[in-house]
Amino acid sequence: MSLGAHLVELRRRLMICAAALIVAMIIAFFVTDPIIQFITAPVDRIAQEHPEVVVGLTFSSVTAPFDLRMRMAFSIGIFLAAPIWLWQIWAYIMPGMTRKEIKYTIGFVAAAIPLFFAGCYVGSLVVPHVIELMANFTPEGANNLYEGKLYFDFILKLMLVLGVSFVLPVFLVALNVAGIISGRDIIKGWRVAVLIATVFAALATPAADVVSMLLLAGILVVLFFAAAALSMIFDRRRKKQMKADGLLPETDA
């Protein structure tokens, strides 16, 4: 294809993505009420447990409630339209890939998507504990009034961070497949990985909830070791193939 044909194809794919996102946003806009009730449940619990403190969401402008719903519709719309825009990206780059690259890419995407949503789900379970924990630091006589926009941004970012953290092992395997890092190099960093997973879990869960902290840290550690084990399998297969092609001597360890 010529450069002009590539640009035309790119524009067509982008138009499809935009149309899918708009439709998903319209659908998402009408389901914001139950989502708002879900994300504000921690605020309601804080208000019930501390009736002497004023707790609730605030909106600093006339259009702020509508703006919040639009931001939520956009965020939810991206998730709802994910199958379509992911496929459009894939369909655009696939013709320029080899059969082997296509096979690996399908494997990475098939692993990354469920892991990302699993991380977001774990984030939805962790967020209420974090909000309640932070509320305990409120000085006596002060109130907890959360700006709606900032409150939603905090929840969304925390869920995204957990979603991305679950996908990081897939990137380690991708680096291994690309020949940038070996499985042994990954496994050598297990102490640092365990420390980071433990600290991250401790920060993401309330101090009193040790079970949740250990569960989250355990999931992250298991994903890390799974990535290391898979990378070592790929290293072994790659070495066997190189020996079969005569690139390595048979006695080479």
Q: Rough shape?
A: flat
Instruction: Give me the strand/helix succession.
Output: HHHEHHHEHHHH
Mean pLDDT: 80
For the biggest sheet, the summary is: 2 strands, parallel
* Total beta strand runs: 2
- Fraction in beta strands: under 5%
Our Rg estimate from Cα atoms comes to: 23 Å
**What is the distance, rounded to the nearest whole angstrom, between the alpha carbons of the first and last residues?**
45 Å
What structural category characterises the helix and strand content?
A: mainly alpha
The strand order across the widest sheet is 1-2
Number of domains: 2
Which residue ranges are poorly predicted, with pLDDT under 50 across at least 5 consecutive positions? Answer: none
**SS field, number of helical segments:** 10
Helix content: over 70%
Q: Can you offer a commentary on this structure?
A:
This protein is mainly alpha-helical. It has two domains: 3-165, no CATH class; 181-253. The mean pLDDT is 80. The chain is built from ten helices and two strands. It is a multi-pass membrane protein. One of its GO terms (cellular component) is TAT protein transport complex. Belongs to the TatC family.
